Amino acid sequence: MSIRHGLLALLSSGPRYGYQLRVEFEASTGATWPLNIGQVYTTLSRLERDGLVAPGGADEQGRAVYTITEAGREELERWFSTPVAQTDRPRDELAIKIAMAVAGDVDVAEVIQTQRVATMHGLQELTRAKRAAAGTAQRLVLDSLIFKAEAEQRWLDHCEAVSKEKSS
After folding, report:
1. pLDDT digits (tens, 9 = 90+) for 45-57
2. Mean pLDDT over all residues of the chain?
3. Which of 18, 22, 136, 157 is the most exposed, fewest CB within 10 Å of its CB?
């Protein structure tokens, strides 16, 4: 998810000020995607430049609030209706690392085991976080990360089996 679209999604339910957007973004993603306030204001400036948000005056405490424009709503609708392609996701550093270990003169089993232990610890942390999650949005984000960690464990098992075949 882009920060840009995440902020638009939050603004679609009403005006917000920058810090409020940061807190709600992090809460919605189960704190798995931390933002610094500079990212929020830089993104808001770009959204305003692009005509997707507009300054909405100030709240009762004098904080500048932003509102989504009609163009912002159209952009958000376009984003929600467009599937995320595999090619739009960042490169998988782990897949590259394992491939280079197999291709090189490296103890592949050790690389796989090191990752397996780290992934298992991450999975345990995610499971604890899910139990403590306050809302449905947080739980769904954490579920996604848990499923990815479980899939990574299965993939590591597969890599181990394939690398053993290669060495036999």
Report:
1. 999 999 999 998 8
2. 88
3. 136
